[in-house]
Amino acid sequence: MSSDKKLLSNLKYDFPSGLVVYLVALPLCLGVALASTGRPDLLFSGIIAGMVGGIVVGAISGSPLGVSGPAAGLVVIVLSALDTLGSFEAFLAALILAGALQVIAGIMKAGIIGYYFPSSVIKGMLAAIGITLILKEIPHAFGYDADFMGDEAFQQKDGQNTLTELYNAVRYSSTGAIIISAVSLGLLILFDKPFMKRIQLFKFLPGALFVVLLGVLMNIGFNLFAPGLAVSGDHLVQLPVAGSLQDFFSFFKSPDFTSYTKPEVYTVAVTLAVVASLESLLSVEATDKLDPYKRSTPTNRELIAQGIGNMTSGLIGGLPVTQVIVRSSANVEAGGRTKMATIIHGTILLLSALLIPKLLNYIPLASLAAILLVVGYKLSKLSLYTGMYRLGKEQFIPFIVTIIAILSTDLLKGIAIGMVIAIYFILRKNYKHSYQYVKEEHRNGEVITLILSEEVTFLNKGSIGATLDNLPDNSTVIIDGTRSIDIDYDVLEIIQDFRKHSAPLRNIKVETKGIKEVSIIGGH
């Protein structure tokens, strides 16, 4: 089947999934924009990034289920860059450069980095994002919206943190918002039941759409019959409304290319390119693990797609884009099959912002929070923890450490901490399994055979050196490298030095098999 026919044949799955992703993405785009810029007049920059992430990146990327858009992980970088560069237009110029650097990185095959994230860390990231979603969306579900929708960091710029915001959510809750979110959650659970999925209408129109429509109707009912329960202002979607087509196009900004004379622009561009690329590659790995068809995303092509996306976003006034796990996992859970779902979500973002912005502003954030709470739960199910525990401590400890680190810091710092722990266990395993130790008793004394493994790297230098140092005096040792495909120079040097210098002093007879001689630089 051709690629185009495959996309069309899966449209019955991709359209409802794209609709769900759109409902998830809309408040996140607005929340990230407000947090990144601090300016209500630049709210539309988040919608632009969402459109570009869906349509442009979606069309170029090879990721079947990944969804791109503005990311909460870049909020601090964008805020700092705006302060350093002095204008949003100068920032857009830096973003275009960042995109160009990503394209170059993709062409130079730098996407291979994505294959070196340990599975335990990626699964820990998924679980942590699930828990973060639950903790961060509870305040929105309770009608306490002091923090922007989509925030992932533990510490917040207003001095609060994830835990204190939960306390405040209970303390300052809105009864109307709680009712809307509770009914929304109940409806989503109902829609997840097998008998509901067999109804033809609900195969094409997702439960999330009905949840949003019901939330709007409930709030209209509150306004008419119980004004004390009605939610308004910050508790609703707040999409900029254009009075005319000309006003709509005024939301799009142009970059200030004269700012390329400022050295700071290049520093910002490099920072954006590196962080956005890492976030995208992490999300690619995580999304591929969630993919029920276990497809593999070409990472170099993903960097090129992200780069072109950021160049496009910079040209028309949008925020930086990365592939983002929350929207991608929502796509997986909604049953998306191909990248048509992400393109559809971007197209709906564009059309709805152009045609029905006033109607969108009736949507309660409590309804959208309920959708994200379900996404969070599915990312952090108990079965994930029990499955990782059964794999043993070498997988479970990096998994748990990654979760704790992300929850107590932010995504990139948490991943970095998780990577350190995972690498420690990898090195420890490598240290222990570089050879097989066989001891036999003979008439002439002990004969010890060290059978080296297939790959012996400099990481094995310590364990092999320690074993040779601890061999009993007056023994015979056979160092067998016949099974090894490659033995690192550092290890060959240790073996040769031991055979020629240390062993004779201790009356140890050394026999080697498949171990080549090396010239020791600066040696004896």
Structural overview:
By secondary structure, the chain is an alpha/beta fold. It has 2 domains: 3-402, no CATH class; 434-513, 2-Layer Sandwich (Transcription Regulator spoIIAA), CATH 3.30.750. The chain is 63% helix and 6% strand. It has 23 helices and 8 strands. The chain has helices at 3-9, 11-37, 44-60, 75-85, 88-107, 119-141, 162-171, 175-191, 194-197, 200-204, 207-225, 245-250, 263-290, 299-316, 325-333, 340-355, 357-360, 365-379, 382-390, 393-408, 411-432, 461-469, 489-505; strands at residues 68-69, 322-323, 435-442, 445-452, 455-456, 476-480, 486-487, 509-513. A 4-stranded mixed beta sheet has the order 3-4-6-8, covered by helices on one side. The protein has a two-stranded antiparallel sheet with strand order 1-2. A hairpin with a 2-residue loop joins strand 3 (435-442) and strand 4. Helix 11 packs antiparallel against helix 18 (365-379). The longest helix has 28 residues, at 263-290. It is elongated. The N and C termini lie far apart (67 Å). The model has no long low-confidence stretch (mean pLDDT 89). It is found in: Membrane.
- Kindly provide the radius of gyration, computed on alpha-carbon positions and rounded to a whole number of angstroms: 28 Å
End-to-end CA span: 67 Å
Which class of secondary structure composition applies to the elements? alpha/beta
Quaternary structure state of the chains depicted = single chain
Strand order of the largest sheet: 3-4-6-8
Beta content? 5-15%
Largest sheet descriptor: 4 strands, mixed
What is the helix fraction of residues, given as a range? 55-70%
- The best one-word shape is elongated
- The average pLDDT value, as a whole number, equals 89
- In the residues, how many domains can be counted? 2
Number of strands: 8
DSSP helical segment count:
23
Low-confidence runs: none
